[in-house]
Write a structure and sequence with these properties.
The structure holds 2 protein chains of 2 kinds.
Chain A: E1 11-15, E2 20-24, H1 28-34, H2 37-47, E3 64-67, E4 80-85, E5 91-96, H3 100-107, E6 111-115, E7 122-127, E8 130-135, H4 144-152, H5 173-178, E9 193-196, H6 199-202, E10 210-212, E11 216-218, H7 223-229, E12 232-238, E13 243-244, H8 248-262, H9 266-271, H10 277-282, H11 307-313, E14 331-333, E15 345-347, H12 351-356, H13 379-399, H14 403-418, H15 437-448, H16 454-457, H17 460-472, E16 483-484, E17 487-488, H18 502-507, H19 519-524, H20 527-543, H21 556-564, H22 571-592, H23 598-603, H24 609-612, H25 630-645, H26 656-662, H27 665-677
Parallel strand pairs in A: 1-6, 7-12
Antiparallel strand pairs in A: 1-2, 3-4, 3-6, 4-5, 7-8, 9-12, 10-11, 14-15, 16-17
Helix pairs in contact in A: 1-2, 2-20, 2-22, 8-21, 13-15, 14-17, 20-22, 22-27, 26-27
Chain B: H1 27-33, H2 37-41, E1 81-85, H3 95-108, E2 116-117, E3 125-129, E4 132-136, H4 145-148, H5 154-158, E5 164-167, E6 181-184, H6 197-205, E7 211-212, E8 219-220, H7 230-234, E9 241-245, H8 257-269
The chains are: A alpha+beta, B alpha+beta.
């Protein structure tokens, strides 16, 4: 095989049961078809039979993949993606920024696939071609921040770490007399990068993340739980081999052009996603307030959701992924009068955090006030509200939990308490009231250690609601989990129509994904454009690049061409990768859950609130999802969407012709056949 | 910037201790009178090194980092200037390391790096310590004769081969002028498999300025690109990495990366962390 450029042509398969590491070398046509990242990961879920319903997500047979793509490395905005079967029994694809993705390419790998289960806690150390399984008992049970710093210093390249050689005789006598050599040798010139889980992943909380750099996360669908089920604490990577490119000169020129444009992108460079919150509330009426009972505050003077206010109150730095000039992560130190929260280190909060573990938990109102009352506090009160958001972000990050699903769960429990549908006794005596960060802290401790009621809560919002509905004999409890496809809805509502359209959440290939793309197409009703947007997002996750920088527009295909040397690669090839991922993930979700009527059992699993609780206040009051026309949504728009994708109109199953067109009938044809006939 | 020509032969080390060019003072005289020119403007410890009085207060202020895509600015080689890194503005984007690695990887190994971007060639080494980035580079330290019996750089002093050179102003690589810069004589350097005294003494007592290339495993040290550093031009963040007048012994700035990161943790996050 001709030498590949852009990608390395090697994926490490680590079997933790046997303790062996083998090298997978995907043929070039597989790279051409799936490129890398998310699509390549989904391909292996089919190829290795993870799509079969018998494979227990938290059993040793499940496969956890860390994937990168052809431009990951020397390109800006590098990201990594985890692909596996989620503990929720649907597809789990989650991306994260950070230096580890680039480092993996420099080590000479396109991905790491982990199967089996270690009999004691281990971590995987990747030093260029050498992949080792090492003991991790010293970091098991430790928080993400602390464990990462320990592991970072344990993995070094052969170019580093030498025993001492220096003798007094090497120095002048005067010098040696004052400061003789200490015999420490020399160490690291660049640090290793770490993907790891916190206590949440260790104890298999279903919505546990794989974290990196303290606050970055493969944030959704619980890859951390799968990692924990394998007794795998971390993957630590140090690479010294660099990134091979087909046309380095042209590639680096494109990189320079993208970076020069990013340099002028004031929106991201100013506050990152912290700059979105304000408009989402006072313009779009789509902000989560108290489990989505409200979507805005009647008094727009709630300032603690503004990027500018957060910056004034707490930002103390800015951090970028390799090659990125947008630096969308702003570290903070929490400043509060409350010793529980004071001095915690975390980031921002970013947009989803400020919504889901901010407004959604009632953190922004003064005591006793509702979101419809005039805000009576001072700027310092607002800063204390911000501190609560930041501290709850810190808890989730340090335990390694998804704060979107986590915020949905806590918000639902708070509303169930508000409505007296459950009592404090149901939560092991924790009196969970709106805005009570201490109660949240107590409850999270129970969740991550799966202690008492935490063992139920750790299975996420939907399972918790089912548990309480049955236990209390109150089926109306099922009206309050704000989940689509059984997973927490991110901080973009669909009722007001100001932000997203309901069809976007119904169709997106990863449950409740807010970054699925095609938003403008769904809002305007141009479903072809919406589908192109969705496919484009999956292609981006296969590169693997970031969706934030619009600066890539018009350059993406050239980036792939100059990295790989595929001179005949076109925009159409790029978009088709996304179409393949959509078809495969659809089949994956149908097959793993053995859905016989996908529309009823899956697509219609949307929040009760969408169609039954109109937005009460704010700029767009009195609205419900899809103008209240759920029949039109599910029986007209959805089948039209499926048809445009080449899927059957009754069940949304990709037809054999479609699979053939996409060239994926070889791995998915049999499974599609079964469900098409059913 | 001026085109850098590849030279097969390394420049000869200076025969004599470099002296101040104007005014006829040698370094020790300079130390006695306590500084002049740029050095006189610098508050605090002026500890002497190659001094070029022509780099005076008239020197224009450092320009904003060049944005790629703009017309290239003609290089201004600045004597008596120093790299200044500010952790509160650094985002850890690694652009400095890519610029450095590209320049020197291509310079020494044009064939092997024709299709590869590899940060191991970088003399400047950003290190991410979770929320804090430290940009390690050579600080241009000098030993103090009254205390340590030598005025060489520590790495030069311990090198058994005299392979680390200070090339005087006006000599050395074509286009490299304006300052006495450090350079490794790759013929003389024994390489990492045999010797790493320079790196060890640097890390133990000063900073973390020496690294080793991944091909021949010879020592790499920052030459400040002879007075017009690529890393500074590549840096996209205002104030994060500057090329500024700082007539000081580099020991003034030197700190091991982990120690620096610990200090920044305390300063930025008001928290203790042992790294």
């Amino acid at each position: 095989m001709a030498e590949l450029k852009g990608m390395t042509g090697k994926i490490a398969r680590v079997d933790l049961t046997t303790g062996t590491v083998t090298t997978i070398e995907p043929p070039e046509e597989v790279y051409r078809k799936y490129m890398g990242g998310s699509a390549l990961g989904v391909y292996y879920l089919f190829k290795e039979g993870i799509v079969n319903p018998e494979v227990d997500p938290l059993g040793p047979d499940n496969m956890l993949q860390f994937m990168i793509g052809p431009v990951t490395g020397a390109a800006p905005n590098a990201r990594s993606v985890t692909v596996t079967k989620s503990a929720y029994n649907f597809i789990s694809i989650a991306t994260s920024g950070g230096q580890a993705a680039t480092e993996l390419k420099y080590a000479g790998w396109d991905g790491i696939q982990v199967v089996g289960k270690a009999d004691k806690p281990v971590y995987i150390a990747v030093i260029d071609d050498v992949v080792e399984i090492r003991d991790a008992s010293h970091v098991w049970g430790k928080g993400v921040e602390e464990a990462e710093m320990i592991l970072k210093s344990e993995v070094t390249a052969p170019l580093e770490t030498k025993e001492t050689q220096l003798r007094e005789g090497d120095m002048t006598p005067e010098w040696a007399k004052i400061r003789p050599p200490k015999g420490t040798g020399f160490g690291k010139k660049r640090l290793a990068s770490v993907w790891l889980i916190g206590k949440g992943g260790e104890n298999k909380v279903w919505y546990a993340n794989v974290m990196t750099e303290g606050a970055r996360a493969h944030g959704r669908y619980g890859p951390g739980a799968v990692m924990g089920s394998k007794n795998l604490k971390a993957v630590v990577i140090r690479g010294t081999k660099g990134h091979k490119l087909a046309d380095k000169k042209k590639f680096m020129q494109l990189v320079g052009e993208i970076q020069a444009l990013e340099r002028q992108d004031f929106f991201w460079r100013q506050f990152g996603t912290a700059g979105i919150g304000w408009s989402s509330s006072i313009v779009e009426d789509s902000y989560p307030v108290r489990n989505w009972q409200w979507c805005a505050w009647s008094d727009p003077n709630v300032r603690s959701i503004e990027g500018a206010f957060m910056d004034q109150a707490s930002f103390i730095g800015k951090k970028a992924c390799p090659g990125c000039v947008l630096h969308c992560l702003f570290p903070v130190e929490v400043t509060s009068d409350d010793p529980l929260m004071d001095k915690a280190m975390t980031d921002m909060p970013d947009w989803e955090a400020m919504g889901m573990v901010g407004g959604n938990l009632g953190y922004h109102e003064m005591p006793g006030a509702t979101p419809e009352d005039t805000f009576t506090g001072t700027h310092v009160d607002q800063a204390e509200h911000l501190a609560k958001v930041q501290f709850t972000t810190f808890l989730h990050d340090n335990y390694g939990l998804d704060y979107i699903e986590g915020g949905t769960l806590l918000g639902m429990l708070m509303e169930l308490r508000q409505r007296d549908l459950i009592s404090a006794a149901d939560l092991d005596g924790i009196d969970l009231q709106w805005g009570d960060v201490h109660a949240v802290d107590e409850l999270l401790k129970k969740i991550v250690s799966r202690e008492g009621i935490g063992d139920v809560l750790a299975n996420g919002t939907w399972e918790t609601a089912k548990y309480f509905a049955e236990k209390k004999g109150k089926p109306e409890i099922m009206n309050y989990p704000v989940t689509t496809h059984r997973y927490g809805q991110p901080a973009h509502d669909v009722r007001s129509g100001g932000d997203k359209n309901a069809l976007e959440y119904v169709t997106v290939c990863r449950p409740s994904e807010h970054t699925g793309g095609g938003t403008a197409g769904f809002v305007s009703g141009d479903l072809a454009a919406a589908i192109a947007g969705q496919n484009g997002k999956c292609s981006t996750d296969s590169l693997v690049a970031c969706i934030f920088p619009g600066e890539w527009a018009g350059k993406t295909v050239d980036m792939v061409k100059t990295a790989t040397g595929w001179t005949d690669f076109t925009e159409d090839d790029l978009i088709k990768i996304g179409a393949r991922e959509y078809a495969l993930t659809r089949l994956f979700d149908i097959n793993t859950q053995q859905l016989t009527d996908p529309k009823e059992q899956w697509d219609k699993l949307v929040p009760h609130r969408w169609f039954n609780d109109p937005t009460p206040n704010g700029p767009l009051p009195g609205k419900v999802a899809y103008d209240g026309n759920s029949d039109k949504l599910f029986n007209e728009a959805l089948p039209t969407y499926w048809k445009l994708r080449g899927w059957t109109e009754d069940k949304g199953i990709p037809t054999l012709e479609t699979l053939k067109d996409l060239g994926i009938d070889d791995i998915a044809g049999d499974i599609a056949q079964v469900h098409l006939k059913a | 910037m001026a085109q850098v020509e590849r030279r097969d032969k390394q420049p000869e080390p200076p025969k004599e201790e470099p002296t101040v060019k104007e005014g006829g003072l040698n370094r020790r005289d300079f130390l006695k009178i306590g500084g002049s020119g740029v050095a006189g403007l610098v508050v605090g410890a002026v500890l002497g090194r190659e001094v070029f009085p022509k780099a005076s207060a008239e020197e224009p202020a450092p320009e904003a980092p060049a944005v790629e895509g703009e017309a290239p600015v003609e290089a201004q080689y600045k004597a008596g200037y120093e790299l200044a890194f500010d952790p509160t503005n650094c985002t850890g984007c690694m652009k400095c390391a890519v610029a450095c690695a590209e320049k020197y990887g291509t310079f020494f190994f044009p064939d092997q790096t024709a299709d590869t971007v590899n940060l191991e060639f970088a003399r400047i080494r950003p290190m991410r310590f979770q929320y804090v980035d430290v940009v390690s580079h050579c600080f241009y330290c000098q030993l103090l004769p009254w205390a340590e019996g030598s005025d060489k750089a520590p790495c030069q002093e311990v090198c058994p081969q005299d392979a680390i050179l200070t090339v005087p102003e006006g000599e050395g690589e074509e286009g490299y002028y304006g300052m006495g810069y450090k350079w490794v004589d790759r013929e003389k350097c024994l390489g990492l498999d045999k010797c790493w005294r320079c790196a060890e003494v640097c890390e133990e007592q000063f900073g973390s300025g020496i690294s080793f290339d991944p091909i021949e495993k010879k020592a790499q040290v920052c030459s400040r690109c002879g007075g017009d550093p690529e890393c500074v031009k590549a840096c996209p963040e205002p104030l994060a990495l500057q090329w500024v007048p700082a007539m000081r012994n580099g020991r003034f700035n030197a700190q091991a990366p982990s120690a620096m990161a610990e200090l920044y943790y305390r300063k930025l996050f008001n928290a203790r962390r042992t790294l």
